[in-house]
Amino acid sequence: MTWADLAVFHILSTVMDPNKFKDIPGQEMRENVPKDYPKLRELGLRVRAVPSIKKWLEERPDSKF
After folding, report:
1. Contact 33, 16 (CB under 8 A)
2. What's the pLDDT score for residue 65?
């Protein structure tokens, strides 16, 4: 896993969050990203599978950021 993997994961996680960026045109296409870009989906699954990252994602506090 590289810093680039984590950076892409972070950006995609933020952009794919349905509660964020609601006013940007094209957001209805978000749900297509995992099926249209399987390597990005695999990256997300791989990063989420790291035990320390998985734990943080489950336990992190709510934030608007």
Report:
1. yes
2. 63
